[in-house]
Write a structure and sequence with these properties.
The chain is α/β, with parallel strands linked by helices. It is about 25% helix and about 25% strand. The chain has helices spanning about 40-45, 95, 140-145, 145-155, 175-185, 200-210, 225-230, 250-255, 280-285, 295-305, 325-335, and strands at about 1-5, 15-20, 30-35, 55, 60-70, 80-85, 110, 115, 125-130, 135, 170, 190-195, 215-220, 240-245, 260-265, 285-290, 315-320, 340-345. The longest helix is centred in the middle third of the chain and has 12 residues, at about 175-185. The protein binds zinc ion (2 copies).
Amino acid sequence: MRGLMKTARGPGNLELRDVEDPRPAEDQVLIEVSAAGICGTDVHIKHDQAFYTPPVILGHEYSGEVIEVGRDVSAVNVGDQVVSPATAYCGKCYQCKTGHMNRCTASDKRILGTSLANGAFAKYIVVPEYIVHKVPKGVSEEEAALAEPTACVVHSVIDKSPIQPGDVVVVQGPGTMGLLSAQVAKAMGAGKVILTGVSSDQWRFDIARRAGVDITLDVQAEADPVGLVMDETDGRGADVVIEASGACVACTQALDFVKVSGHVTLLGVRGMSLNIDLDPMVTKELTMSGTWGTLPSSWVTTLRLMSTRKIDVAPLITHRIALSEWERGFELMETQQAIKVLFTDLS
Ligand SMILES: [Zn+2]
Ligand SMILES: [Zn+2]
């Protein structure tokens, strides 16, 4: 088969390579990939700005059909439509034993599409049975390919953000994570979701409104963005602010948007030196949370939300292309012309 491989360290070094078709070990399943999405992390790996161990086939957001199972596999069958997280875990370390499998410390941890395990930008992928989740009926192959980023948002927003029915929630950043956050907040009962972005995000705002966002806020064009949020909250501020833009300036603004005793969720910020005034944490008695990846339960919740249409990821899929057109796919992401690019032909 051909796979999109990061062949060596350094910027670039990404190419379609012929590799031997993978075979499942006793505890693994062989999956024919139906659809696989390009994530910001894949773009970072291309530019040598993220952790990875080459040579490795990229791609950790995918769905597919099981076509072969290893000898010891018992709960997954040939023909099942499945998804899985990117990370396997040891089940033995302190983090795993205390329920934080997403932070497993095993040194030989396999991360699909990043380290020690090939990813889904190929015709086939093998993964251990214990991380696989079956896709419920009514969820399409393309929608299921967005289960991974959705599960990240579910872990961050449902597990760690205290959203109550009727709350006003500000989501910063109209990318994949922001748009999913808005939908998950709505599913938790948020009364009003305000999504912030910049002037070049108008086309994203159109998609956001179709995806259930109540108010879009262009923080560049609006003279007083904080005032607008105050107007929408009887002068109190947002109950919860979800930072999903990864922009430093947005982090500062999050502390202005949020109400006294409110909560700020960090979803997008990483790898940048933040020079922000944390005094509002004290003076407004705020709480703040960060999350990393997903827990097994995040996937169960995600697939339920998808199958009951509490969240609809379809509007986020802006491009469907063949793996052979991978250069165009990455360019669409790099130039911010896409929300989610899916490879739907991986032959
Ligand atoms: Zn990702
Ligand atoms: Zn572990």
